[in-house]
Request: fold
Amino acid sequence: MSEHSIIIDENKCNGCTICLRACPTQALIVRNGKAKLINDRCIDCGECIRSCPEKAIKSKRDNIDIIQNYKYKLLVYSPVILAQFKEFHSWEKVLYLFRHMGFDDICGVDTGGYIAADIIRGFLKNKKNSKRPYIATNCPAVCRLIQSKYSGLVEHILPMYSISDIAGEYLKHAFISTKKVDPEDVGLFYISPCPAKLIPTNQEKGCHSIFDGIFSMGDIYNTLMKIMENEDLQYTEQEMVTTKFALRWSSFGDVEHKFKDFTTLRIDGIRNVIRFLNRLENGIVEDVDFVDMYACDNGCVGGVFAKEDPHIAEYRIKRIADAFPEKISKKMFPCDVDSCDIRMKFEYNPKIPDKEDMKLAIQTLAEIEALYEKLPKLDCAACGSATCYNFAEDIVVRKDVTMDDCPILKKSAP
Amino acid sequence: MKEEDCLLKFEIQGGEFLDSGESSAVIKEYLKKIGIPHPFIRRVLIATYEAEMNVVAHAEKGTLCFTIEGETVVVRVHDKGPGIPDIELAMQKGYSTATQEVRQMGFGAGMGLPNMKQNSDTLVINTEVGTGTEVIMEFTL
Reply:
């Protein structure tokens, strides 16, 4: 049973079915006038949150107060937050405010990108790694989509943690080693640009989040704005140890730069991701080594919790990144923790159906197809199922609706 | 196998490279829906795609019929085309009679029949030069 970050407020939901049509995996239904989540289909991409006109769909997140439970507080932020402010050139102010909020040490997801790039390059150079293209794990919604709908492509997922997890482990490891503190006293937190990152990526394996708390970028944006508007802020100089490439990659998925000698693609937007996965599954994708896919438009700058337009945010990140070098000159603390390696495994253990299972499945499918042929195929969702095909499935499998629930058929009935 | 026994049936048009691969994609979706594991689906997908491409590349037109008999997937492709004069030669890896035009599009590498043989459990080819070819592939789960 998988855990999801999507919460539907039944008091606010008016059963309008807009979320049903926005959901790329048909994970929502409306029954008795209220939207409901079908757990095993949801990939936490958050398209429903974006689409809901009543703001009835929200995402679980932690309250910032939980940092007080730890003696030492560490923060990994998505650099996307730096692009949410008009005065984006004063990114130092944002970093200063993180310290002001009580964090002892901070780093951006870009740090994880900087560490991961060389490891991935080494992995791709090895010709023995032949399940190409390899798919990056940076977008948990994409990983979950593959695990649930494209299980045959699981072997293409890069066996590595996402760059935000790498940044987190690195930050914690460096802090504990240099400050010589008890790991029990250290709390590791993350500011996420989207609901997908609020829950662990690889749930199949029972993998828990390395973070002790994850905050929504929207909540943090509010907190920061409040301080900026109400306090006469005197901020001190802040250092950001990063590179041009790392900032760009971790914000809008610009992978090409560091992987010029490989064929790499950045694919953004969940519908584009689905189209590519279909082609890959059909065996008609050739000569691609590495694909970085994001459910959101323009990658993480398009995250559900981002306030700014993704194109403006991307522009701002590019301008911030311009000031940074190609390589980090400072000697970095060695990353010898587990996550800085190729050792994650995404499991795929298919059950082989026997003769009887298959016979039954073929019969069920024939039943669904026969009903589907009788439906208007408008995909209007007025019945409460996302598409006419889903409606036919729901009649046969879920058995919670009947043909009479189709308003179009009812209207045209004599 | 009679026509009405097909679970899925497709018409294939010779020379239509743009739409090629559609029947294998629909068959893949079907097998996914009834819960067949991917490694098996991939075998069916590759072999069916090759059979389909052979019709597109060489024949005038053809039909593809897909069905399941017990635990065996059967794909039968029947075409109206030039036929295969020397099957043994055609089975050799790299042997191709594809035109220059077809090769320039990235097809015609001479792997069609070898790939079909490698991915299916049984492969039967009935061909008549100047009339057409029938290919029957079986895949056992």
Observations:
- The domain at 1-60 of chain A is CATH 3.30.70.20 (Alpha-Beta Plaits).
